[in-house]
Amino acid sequence: MTALTLSTAAASGLRADAIVVGVAKGAKGPVVAPGAEAVDKAYDGKLASVLETLGASGAEGEVTKLPAPSGFKAPVVLAVGLGTVPEKDETYGTDALRRAAGTAARALSGSKKAAFALPAEDAEDAGAIAEGALLGAYSFDAYKENGSANGKNGKGAKDAKGPLAEIALLGGKPRDKAYKAAVERATALSEELNRARDLINTPPNDLNPEAFAAVATAAAKEHGIKVQVLDEKALTKGGFGGILGVGVGSDAPPRLVKLSYTSSKAKKHLAFVGKGITYDSGGISLKPAGHNETMKCDMAGAAAVFAAVVTAARLGLEVNVTGWLALAENMPSGSATRPGDVLRMYSGKTVEVLNTDAEGRLVLADAIAKASEDNPDAIVDVATLTGAMMMALGSRTFGIMANDDAFRAAIHDASEEAGEPSWPMPLPEHLKKGMDSPTADIANMGERMGGGLVAGLFLREFVGEGITWAHLDIAGPAFNEGGPFGYTPKGGTGTAVRTLVRLAERTAAGDLG
Asked: Is residue 161 among the annotated active site residues?
């Protein structure tokens, strides 16, 4: 993990590979952002002109490198675009700072140390810069022979570019409690989010349900979190027909993991439930070629829940948080669940399985019903659930459904504050009829149009009476198949971790929604 410190050192005297400054898009050309005054002065106040000559505009995501001024111990100045200059009396905003820091950190991969002189007016800004830089410095090279030296085989090529090793935030206040707390929060959150990314990126031959449960157990013990793992025997004895029905076709049996973080000062209890399909072939309803190559990411919801619970524990949040990881591998075999089979769920309801590739809702339904027995103040499930949600909202925005409008709005607010794009979605009652079954209480499929909403309606059936519930469909942003941007890498993104943590923080502060 990249190391990060607050520094009061002058930019000119700091030994580093690069000094990072911000540049914004002004009406008449690039404008040097606050925080870079000392660097600009060393260029005789002409840094903006030099950058413009080099083609820089200040647009978001733009990176320009130039030789550092005479007298600087760092050899390079890296100017990163912040986007349009804010209006008078406005600031750049935490997410613009977060994205810029992430972009700079990615551009400096392979470097030992960089000093960030971005505009930080207060502790919140410093925390955003720290978070963006730490998330942007992420890399996953464990399986590459020419990757980082800590690779799977212990080897590393001489030309390998690991992540930026050390970050110094200039203009920070190391002795200020607010600044220290902001950086500590950013560090804990980023470390756990990056661990979630590692899990999402790990090939399914190395991350089956048992292996995932082992990772969660080890982390729980490290951070004082109570853990309970139900194996296939316990699941059978408990009547978890949904989880067992999905996992029965695989040689790797399913698991249900319960992670319980408790605070002696807590007044509220949140339950987070994560879909953890460690590989989704579609089962007997087999996915076609071109649709199964990235299905190692179908456990991203469980990874997000796991990371959020550990982060809550590390931050000592004054709220009880329980995480449920519903882990299974969905494979075709002679023992696999068939289309037309009926499963008796943990809640007692029966489900006719019309499509074995609609498996995520089956494992979630059992976990939601089990979580309801603790009577939490709210349940939030997180899942890469439907392609329909991707069609509706694209690859960077997740959908929020809920049985309570105020709670749905609170989660949307939390996601916006965290910098994770989301959008509130409805649960139209007329779509429920499409899941009527002549054989069972409900079918696992309904109308094709509005499929993401149908899935939400299905899950709602398994929420305990009187319990506030929300469903986050993260199918779009959970796995980035395109190029990296901002602090978002290619591959697993860790989507929803920051939203869940922010929701827990708001709940601890008495703002559940």
From this structure: no
